[in-house]
Design a protein that fits this description.
Elements (H helix, E strand, L loop, with lengths): L3 E7 L7 H17 L4 E3 L13 H5 L6 H13 L2 E10 L2 E9 L5 E6 L5 H7 L9 E4 L2 E5 L8 H9 L4 E5 L8 H14 L2 E5 L2 E4 L2 E4 L3 E3 L5 E4 L5 E7 L1 H10 L16
Parallel strand pairs: 1-2, 2-3, 7-8, 8-9
Antiparallel strand pairs: 1-14, 3-4, 4-5, 6-7, 9-12, 10-11, 12-13
Helix pairs in contact: 1-3
Length: about 260
Amino acid sequence: MPALRTALLQSSGSLSDVAANLKALDEAAGRAAGTGAGLIVCPELFLTGYAIGDDIAKLAEPADGPSARAIADIAVRHGLAVVYGYPEREGDAVYNAAQLIGPDGTRLANYRKTHLFGCFEQEAFTPGDQAVVQADLHGLRVGMMICYDVEFPENVRAHALAGTDLLLVPTAQMHPFQFVAESVVPVRAFENQLYVAYVNRTGPEGEFEFVGLSCLAGPDGAARARAGRGTELVVGDVDPEFLTASRANNPYLRDRRPGLYASLI
């Protein structure tokens, strides 16, 4: 099975300007496709911006809304899958969500952030209640999380046990927690024997300062791609053969003793 070239779009886009962010995604998807990428991953709430206050509710869309259709067109035009963060509206509830759209424009998976970080998110969003959301893409089982979710080891282990090969994590990681991007994410990939695509916002935004440092971490704990602190498109390969070999050599999942961990539930 060939490697899946994966592009990480590290950008904060334009606050409250959905049209501008769709245009930026279209341009980045074209560049990613030019490198041979089959997947591009955007940050948390890329569609609208993160620090937009009451605009969150105003700009929220259903999972099959107009922006989803516009992004499906982008995916088809450039021949690659797209993951993007957006505020999802369902009835009276608004979720911090991320959606995966396939290269043929099909909506493959939609995930709602389960662990909301800080007062802003807890006041603006309803938490999701499904920890493991997966889809099949280019022969890989891909899973989805958003930002703070990946900092809970039980979350990532649940994906490992469910067979996730590549965990997609749109994020809005802010100062002073850059150690998560630098250290925690590669460790999560190693201890669970999967790839993690962790894609961050960057720069000042309202009261927040996003640290960038997006990475594609492999099952050996090494970064296959690593961004700096600014707006950037970086590309790395998810290699199924390397993943299979790494899983054969790493005993973490085989050596688990679940009977000892009942108190964690």
